[in-house]
Amino acid sequence: MIRNCFLGLLLLTGMTAMAQQKPAVKVSGEVTRPLTLYPENLRQMKRTTVSLKDRDGNDHAYTGVPVQEILEQAGVTTGKALRGENLSKYLLVRCADGYEVLFSLAELDSSFTDRVVILADESGGQPLPAGKGPFRLVVPGEKKPARSSFQVTDMIIRFAKD
Amino acid sequence: MILPGLLLLMVIMTAQMPAGRVPAPVTLSWPDYFGNRVFLPAGNPVTEDGIALGRRLFYEKALSSTDQMSCATCHQQAKAFTDGKRFSAGADGVLQPRNTMSLANLLWVRQLFWDGRAGSLEEQAVTPLTALHEMGQSLVVSAAKLQKLPRYRALFRRAFGSDSITGDRIVKALAQFERTLISANSRYDQYLQGKYQPSVSESNGITLFYANTDPVRGTRGAGCAHCHGGPKTYSDLFHNNGLDSLPADAGRQQITGQAYDKGRFRVAALCNIALTAPYMHDGRFPDLESVIDHYSEHVIHNETLSPFLQQPLLLTKQEKNDLLAFLHMLTDSAFVTDPRFSNPFNNN
């Protein structure tokens, strides 16, 4: 019986195994240009470094691309276009483990706030550690780092329509 | 005398029901504290007749290649729709590679299976029905077999407006029935509704479940809720929980192809958890004590271990007992004996 089980597992593995994929962040929803950002794309974009007080209580420097920059590349309504009904749009950030966090677009926009939220791929000159990287959202200035979510895979922009 | 007359009238009405009749919609209900993040596809509204058909199909052995097995063979109501086995056998006797999952509160599950590969209950149902080592029968053959059985034409007409029996309608009806499997009457639910006073041990268990250990504040906790959610004791998450240094089953990595998903599996819902042994995707733990021991002191570090399980909990014996008391609070006896979810063939 056990042998059958292992055979079954081998079959399953053989049938459904997927080729190794390169990690990426997909930007979709209310965009004019859907994006799939690979590590090399982020390295070529405008970058900045911000500080985050992590769960260990210490400040850590993270480097990456401002979320606003990503939204602008995707053709999301930012800056002067972030007005009227566009203020009811939100960004849903989805992570590899299924975790999701949400921001109103105004929370991320330099015309509303000085806080710069980034999609980080580096800390202290090193790639992010396994379990947190390759892409982590870094949200400075919050009392707890629950929205600084690990292993980001998707950034989805939608209207709140209720 | 009146009852037989009414039954006869109902039979006549059923036989004469015109095609295109719209089935009566059902509004499912649940406690407010479950939240409304439910997944109800617009293309398959839940109806009275759809649920009734789905329930019958759930227990219908003609849907297997041997006519000996139904969904309920592995998903037994008394065990919160599991079967107590480490690996369930398919119609051909071959064991499944993973442990049978419990069926309850599926409205809140967006990604079905241990690896999350199905995005709806409709999509999910196709696999156990048709997989070679599960029920092992194509949906076309299943539909043809149902055509030849009494009552099914009428039941499909009532549920979907016409006599047509198709694989698509089979999985839709099954999904409708599964959406009604709402478990919300455990002692923990009753506590949340202000109807039950927990024992000291249960109360301590609740605190441990939600709290984290913090030496600065002097608090003790097991941090279970970080992944096992709030009042539903479920969150739609995938984690590697440190079972092996080199996971034999790649889990979610098989679906995403991402190295960081190696050995990641869906975080199990905890409702009725005391009824669903053995535990983990491979059923390696025979009881809840072993599960608690694992998280307390046996989590194995590996390259994709959840960042939330990096430190051993090192729970005391009393803390383990308290957590166990809490987990037993999650048993919903009414759910596992609810006649609405039972085998309709037993009533024939």
Write the layout of secondary structure elements.
The complex is a heterodimer of chains A (162) and B (348).
Chain A: H1 2-16, E1 25-29, E2 35-37, H2 39-43, E3 48-53, E4 59-66, H3 67-73, E5 89-95, E6 100-104, E7 118-123, E8 126-127, E9 136-138, E10 152-159
Chain B: H1 2-15, H2 48-58, H3 71-74, H4 121-130, H5 139-148, H6 152-160, H7 167-179, H8 187-192, H9 200-210, H10 225-228, E1 238-239, H11 253-256, E2 265-266, H12 288-298, H13 317-329, H14 333-337
Short overview:
Chain A has 162 residues and is of the alpha+beta class. Helices cover 17% and strands 33% of the residues of chain A.
Mean pLDDT of chain A: 89
Question: Fraction of residues of chain A in helices?
Answer: 10-25%
Proportion of β residues of chain B? under 5%
Report the CATH C-level class of the largest domain in chain B: Mainly Alpha
| Structural shape of chain B | globular
Structural class of the helices, strands and pairings of chain B?
mainly alpha
Report, as a whole number of angstroms, the end-to-end distance of chain B.
20 Å
SSE pattern of chain B, N- to C-terminal: HHHHHHHHHHEHEHHH
Keywords:
heterodimer, A: 162 residues, alpha+beta, Sulfite Oxidase, Chain A, domain 2, 5-stranded mixed sheet, 3 helices, globular, B: 348 residues, mainly alpha, Cytochrome Bc1 Complex, Chain D, domain 2, 2 domains, two-stranded antiparallel sheet, 14 helices, 36% helix, disordered N terminus
Polypeptide structure, described:
The complex is a heterodimer of chains A (162) and B (348). Chain A has three helices and ten strands; from the N terminus they run H-E-E-H-E-E-H-E-E-E-E-E-E. Chain A has 162 residues and is an alpha+beta fold. Chain A has a single domain (21-159), classed as Oxidoreductase, molybdopterin-binding domain (Sulfite Oxidase, Chain A, domain 2), CATH 3.90.420.10. Mean pLDDT of chain A is 89; it is low at 1-16. Chain B folds into two domains: 42-182 and 337-347, Cytochrome Bc1 Complex, Chain D, domain 2, CATH 1.10.760; 187-331, Cytochrome c-like domain (Cytochrome Bc1 Complex, Chain D, domain 2, Orthogonal Bundle), CATH 1.10.760. Helix content of chain B is 36%, strand content 1%. Chain B has helices at 2-15, 48-58, 71-74, 121-130, 139-148, 152-160, 167-179, 187-192, 200-210, 225-228, 253-256, 288-298, 317-329, 333-337, and strands at 238-239, 265-266. A two-stranded antiparallel sheet of chain B has the order 1-2. The longest helix of chain B has 14 residues, at 2-15. Chains A and B meet through helix 1 of A and strand 1 and helix 11 of B.
